[in-house]
Structures are given as structure tokens and as C-alpha cells.
């Protein structure tokens, strides 16, 4: 990039496949076409991403979808106002377990079909067996306390009857997950790609289930922006959002997947083999051993309004913060969570493109059903385009009743 661009923007990112829109915007030239000189800075942890955005090292960042909400609720050490004017895709993570845990799960009826109900029932039996024999609790890792990984792992476990204290949950940066599993420091993890594929291809773990089966079309990462910077630089932010939207179109085109995998594999970005990127891009998930499953909506960069910052997504994450004791529910806290996602900025930025946009800023999550079952043969649940695997529905206008129902159903109470 030259110094003649109209807008100079520095963005932090983590080495994950869902940084793809930022990488494509920079490398394919979409940012330059919008007059943006986009500088991408790779980081080593989500805490660093959060803190460097807070102190102004970054103008924007590839962020965990719940992280702007946590910042605005004062749950972070360097709490600063952060807005999420765009999502960076849907889906993209999975839950991987060690070979030893998978063998125990198979003995309890688990099948290599990625079905969250079957895998969860088997894991519950393994947990109970270990507890009955006086064994140490299984230790699972997530990437950050304020991450979709943490909330979705906990949601899955609770819905399958695993009590909160029956599995230890620890924090490990994404690039260290597979190594920690191989070393025996953890028994499983929930992380974005390519770090599940890394374990499957190296033979150190098995993918048990995927985010796309736990909560279909659910948000994973967003573009986070410092609120002060966003307010002072609305034209720069709008130009970046347009560039990222064009990047999403490019990333969604199957004809570009080989080139995208090559870009992501560069040392500047992920620095890992192209074959680690292709399963998530193609949806052909290598589960471990010789297993492979087709999950067509594993990672969605464009379809299903994948870049739209739904307020209902923000509010679901907020309910999980309340559910797991990170914050007390109040109307004021709910309002902060709702206003952290900014579809108004997104709409304004994309208006010149004339692209179709959702008619509302929030929706009832999980209200629609599908025509075919998801998961193993014989599964009874018909998941819709944004369905939860346990059939629950989240209405953002009924926050209090949703929180109350979850708390009353917690398996540790």
C-alpha cells in the first residue's frame, strides 16, 4: 500500500481462517479500491487484540463476537467503548477431543457423524464414569472467557446434561490448542479453524461436533472498532466495510478457495499448510482417522446475511454472560449489549452498493424449522437456518424469561 490512500487503517487479527475477509480485502485489492491503506497486524492472543484496540494501537480488529459486549459492560481490564459494525462470517469452529476421550465416547455410543446430541450423550456417560471411578475431571480449553467458544461449549454441555463443575474449562490461545492436546495438558477444546483440522490431520485428536450443528448460522467473529475512532472516522470505517463486503463475495466463491487457502497459509497470516485451510472452506471436514463429513454451512462468509451484525446475536451472547455468572442482568446491561452491535453503521456504509439487506435489526433465533434432519440418521430434530440443536428458541424481546428458563434448567443446580 502507498501513503497516498485516502484512509489509513490498522487492523489486528488472530491467525485463524475467519480472518479471511481482512486478508482478502488487503491482498486482493478491495481495500485499495475503496481508498483504504489497510495494515494487518498479527497477534498472539485475544487479550492482546482487546487491549491493543483499547489503547489505540489498532483502529479496528478481528474480534470474538462477544468481546465488544464484554468491553462495553466493563468486564475487561482496559474497558473501552467498542462497536461491532459488521460480522466476519458465520460458523467456523468445532469441538475436538483427544483420541483417548474419543475412544471412551465411542464405547458409550458416539459415532463419527458430528451429531451434537449423540456426541454429548456419550461425553456425559464418559464424565459420569470418570467421576464414579474417582478420576480427575476432563479438562477442555476455550480461547477466552468472553468468546462464542466458551458460551457454545457450555451451552452444548448443559443441554446434554453435563453439570457445570463436571468438566474443567481453561483458557488456551488458538495456535496452542492442538499442541496442548497432543501433550496431554487438555482433553478437548473448542476453537476456530484450522486448529481442529490440525489435530485431526496430525492424528492427535478427533472432531466430535461442530458449531454449525450446535447453533446453525451463528456468529463467530466480528469487526470490532474503537467507538471514539469510529465516531471520528465515519468515512474511513464505511470504506472499510464496503471493502470487506466485496472480500466476502470473493471468499464465498468456490473458484477462489484454492487462492484463499494459499494466501492464508503465508507466514504473515497463519503460516500453516494449505491443506489445513481447505476443509473449512469446502465443508469437507476431516474428523480424524480416515473420517470425513460434509458440512456445507461449516463456514459462511456471505450467504444468510453472514456479515450483518444482528442485535439478536449480541443479546444471545449477553444472556450467556448472565447465565454463567459473568454479569448481573439489568435493563441497563441489556441495553449496552444491544447497542454494541451497530447495524445502522453497516446499512449506511453498504447503501451505495445497492445490495439486499435484512428488513430488521434483530430476529427470533431458532424459530424456523428445516425439511431434513441434521446430524445422524434417525435424528428427530429438524434444525432450521438458525436453529439450536436442542430445539430451543431465543426471542430477543423475551430476555428475562429466557434467562430464567436457562437458570432453572442448569444441570449443576
From TrEMBL:
Keyword Transcription regulation: no
Subcellular location: Endomembrane system
Organism this protein belongs to: Allomesorhizobium camelthorni
Keyword tags: Cell inner membrane, Cell membrane, Membrane, Transport
Lineage: Bacteria, Pseudomonadati, Pseudomonadota, Alphaproteobacteria, Hyphomicrobiales
Origin superkingdom: Bacteria
Protein known as: ABC transporter substrate-binding protein
Gene3D superfamilies according to UniProt: Periplasmic binding protein-like II
Signal sequence, renumbered to the chain: none
Keyword Zinc-finger carried by entry: no
GO CC annotation: endomembrane system
